[in-house]
Amino acid sequence: MAQNQMPPAHHDDPAIRVIIVDDQAMVRQGFGALLDAQRDITVVGSAADGSEVVELVRRSRPDVILMDIRMPKLNGLDATRAVKAMPGLEHPRIIMLTTFDADEYVFSALRAGASGFLLKDATAEDLVSAVRIVAAGESLLAPSITSKLIADYARRPSTRRDTAVLSPLTERELGVMKLVATGKSNAEIAEELFVAEQTVKSHVSRILSKLGLRDRTQIVVAAYESGLVSTER
Asked: Is-above-0.85 flag for pTM?
């Protein structure tokens, strides 16, 4: 079973299993070499197109997929949907790879089940950090990405907001949900609210349970769709 709920590996913990899906061989090779050099990460496969992803996931059972958004045969959005629809396994977390941070597919990728985004020109440190963050169950949303989400919704004034779906949440849970939607980690939320990180984890768990959501990324989507997060900042 894929261990996509595991925290960053330490000591004798099993390594985070990663596959890389990108039509550019240099990206696959370069990212693969950087990640394989880490003691707590191992690259277990790669593919040049989204059409190969489902079979690759079935064979290698990765924890994290680095997935290019734009590929010639099957793009990253459709490949992500295909992976999330696979029955009988814990779904791996998916980081979408893009060449610029204003990609028009940002919101569609989050709705498809992506856990975050990474620019292809990211530093080695950012790449390794991204894999560890997403493997630990966090979302990976840079401020530029959350700004893009807000801008998208600001252009849709006629979109109906259904705040009633949030009625099961307490005021504190709503506050935590807002902070999750800005891309903050549990540690950052704990610091802002002056509570223990474990308390934040408990709040996040209850939000997921009460709203029937799968992961933190779905919390982000729900926050924007419900209107909890204002389009004016």
From this structure: no
